[in-house]
Write a structure and sequence with these properties.
The structure is a homotetramer of 275-residue chains.
Chain A: E1 2-8, H1 13-23, E2 28-36, E3 41-48, H2 54-64, E4 70-74, E5 79-85, H3 90-100, E6 106-113, H4 119-124, E7 129-131, H5 139-151, E8 157-160, H6 169-173, E9 179-183, H7 195-202, E10 206-213, E11 223-230, H8 237-260, E12 264-267, E13 270-273
Parallel strand pairs in A: 5-6, 5-8, 6-7, 8-9
Antiparallel strand pairs in A: 1-3, 1-4, 2-3, 9-10, 10-11, 12-13
Helix pairs in contact in A: 1-2, 3-8, 7-8
């Protein structure tokens, strides 16, 4: 069982929570705690042995924690996700492989693409693929189609695995902190289009990738994970793109792992990551 | 104040400790906890606001924790250290600079060298330097001289900053888990002499450095920190040595930082690092 | 076209080669050169624009280079490979994905497994899978079966993608510097069996993976690529294994990329890597 | 001897240069070559054995290379540098230590500070320190004082080792590609003031440092080297600053090493780095 708590800080919160657990004879396997001293905010993630009677635990915790406390008690089953893609195969394939071999910690419900290119790979893994083209339709209409498709499934998260359309604030509002994107740069450097071309022009010596939650501000949402790799003068923009795909895959995989294990707590535009 | 506790695990230990703190109106700034499930061993580091009446806190904690608990309550003043060196300047200089600018989190009491080469740099920083040659004397006599010198000072730790003599088990016994060494390889690869030559011969693509506590088994003590840097075919053993010095300096600095902030708990031949 | 040359060093070799190319109006895109000063050995990799009349170029180069020169002139088509596996899916899946999307720089001819576990994933990608069990047969017989299968195909390289059987020197002799293995440790640390358990016992703070050519000495062949990732006290051997799989996949992918682009020159037990 | 050439590309340039060297019986130790195919620009760095009669070599190379060729033939003595600082000690101390132990590959002529804080450390190393305050004087007057001081010495490079004043384009014009700065962020992210505060607000998971040549556009000059280190939610802006100092020191050291060994060729706003 995983318990995630976020509330205003006060003396004795750890004692309060651990007392409730001890009283219920629940053994703590790992406990990670953080206090943001600037905002006086308290964050806690507790992983416990075995399952527990969640029904009775939640009211017990509510009773002793501050009224503003956000308390989640999750069993450790897998999350359900929908993956959105365009044409690039690398992030999707990695997700499909992990999903197929049951190491994703989530179950892919379906893949939605605005191009047909990745239909074949989905079929090879028996994962439903839905084509929803953005061409010759308004953005509203496109997003309405998307939404319709998504609502046919139950999904905890939408994963944008190199989905190259910008989602409108209206669309994003439906899934607050539930859309995860991989951006192909070390944000905030090179936000927006063509980050590898931008990186090439600037002559940087490292390129990066950033996994973040999507908010209504483009490439401005809370960052989950970032990585970089070295590049040098011999890299063309195409070489950078090729090298970048390796870390895009790897950063997205890491971010999903963290999110699916309830290790990410969002506060304002920042994340607490209990790795 | 920093509280470090190590004992056998049982349900409710975090609650137990945090209750004691809450009762004493001590606010927790950060708490890091680890349970080694294989050995059922519990590790805790708590950093609290302000100082506290240590005299009364220790018995309170002893009363409620298992009888075998190792409890340390440290104020946050700086540790005292003695540095042992031979001829290489890089690790010592880094320590002297940090010591001079008060960012070492420890105070260098003196430097002891078995060569005179580094006397000058110590003098430039007004740090006492003692020459104790290993030449023309038995190991017993050399170590007895060392010990005599060390005992003139009060020191929490001995830091071997590229001290190229192997200390006898007898000597080491005087300072259990209080001698920190920097070994110029990624242990356990290339233990013993000439690790860069060994690395060159093997054609490795990464070289490393390891900071560890010294035990009576050569290069076998608990590891505190390790780092690597890439090398390639163009590196001669000398190039490797030169590149290696950079990470030796950096790994030792990191390890000292961790030790001096009471972030390292040793158990058997392994360390818990609350970074 | 890629030209790879290895010979004893002498003044003017770069001029010699580049003169031949200039005379044939062949434009150099990139040239990487290395002299091992200790062994007075010269290594060169030249990538040129367009194809060339290899038939006439080779004798021209032979005429002007030392008699002992090893000269390879490769067009830039893809290599052919056979992949050997046991049960773990991560390295094989990565190879199959890259093969499927034509970014492997090689074509997988078939996969041979000593367990049936990975047959399904091969079938999903329309890659022939051959089961050759090592059970209830002598090592000689097992390797003879392997060899028989391999010889039905044309292959430049055998890739051991977590193939958990040790190949005999006799077998290896058939494929000198043509078998690539991924070892799940930072060699030479933790050679042999159970490297993650060994790493756990030793309490290391980094774990690694090593891609190397297979020779008749176990885990002793020339190293192609190595990488590490940080671990800490909270990692069980199982956690290390899981984390290690990520770099095993990534190191093997990198090594294959280098080998398939003729960027690896072997000399003695070391490699020159023209990255 | 180190020969550095930059010119428009054409077939046979490597042959041309290496023929001249062979004719003069000069042995090549290492040769690094790069063609920027987009701009059809050729870059070459050759390190040779022994010294040579430079006087006769330069005209020989000029004769056979394109008229626009930029040719430098440098013996391998050390460069001369002047270091500019404000209050922070870490980069300067590292330079002073390497200078003192003769591993900087350059000789520090003097240090100029706009605060007196670092006078003491310079004196400890017998390096002249000049205080030139920016307070109560116009920028023109301040820079004129600076220039006056600098011109009393002979210096190949000015190193801004955490010099916190922005130099005017007029000043920079005096030292084209001869001023090296360390910026405390992963440029182009967080250019300008307070990068660690900016990084904290954005919630990034990596922070960086960038060494670059100074041009008349703030933080926009050609990048020499960059590095990053991971940070997390537990880092305050002050913690980031403290952690950042470690990589600032290390990136600047690396950049200086590369520049002082003539391994950096600048073209437009980008650098070719023959590492």
């Amino acid at each position: 069982m995983i318990i995630v708590i976020q509330c205003s800080d006060q003396v004795g919160l750890v004692a309060t929570v651990s007392n409730v657990l001890a009283k219920n004879i629940i053994n703590i396997i790992s406990m990670r705690e953080h206090v943001d001293t600037a905002s006086k905010r308290f964050f806690l993630r507790v992983e416990t042995e075995g399952a527990a009677n969640t029904v009775s635990l939640l009211p017990q915790l509510k009773e002793v924690l501050p009224a503003n406390a956000n308390i989640q008690i999750n069993p450790i089953p897998e999350k359900k996700i929908i993956v959105l893609v365009t044409k690039e195969y690398h992030c999707l394939s990695d997700i499909l492989i992990r999903n197929h071999f049951k190491t994703l910690r989530a179950a892919v419900q379906c893949v939605i693409g605005n191009h047909a290119s990745l239909q074949d790979i989905c079929q090879r893994f028996d994962i439903p693929f839905h084509l929803t083209s953005h061409e010759n339709v308004s953005k509203e209409s496109f997003e309405s189609d998307l939404l319709g498709l998504i609502q046919k499934y139950t999904a905890d998260y939408l994963v944008l695995a190199k989905f190259m359309r910008i989602l409108s604030p209206t669309f994003v509002t439906h899934f607050p902190m539930r859309i995860i994107n991989i951006h192909h740069s070390f944000l905030p450097a090179f936000a927006g289009a063509n980050p590898y071309r931008q990186a090439y022009e600037r002559g940087v010596k490292l390129i990066g990738a950033t996994a973040h939650f999507v908010t209504d501000l483009l490439d401005e949402g809370p960052i989950i994970a970032q990585q970089i790799i070295p590049v040098n003068h011999s890299f063309t923009p195409t070489d950078m793109m090729r090298a970048g795909k390796e870390i895009e895959t790897s950063v997205l995989a890491k971010a999903l792992h963290l999110v699916f294990e309830d290790r990410i707590l969002v506060y304002g535009n920042r994340t607490v990551v209990f790795e």
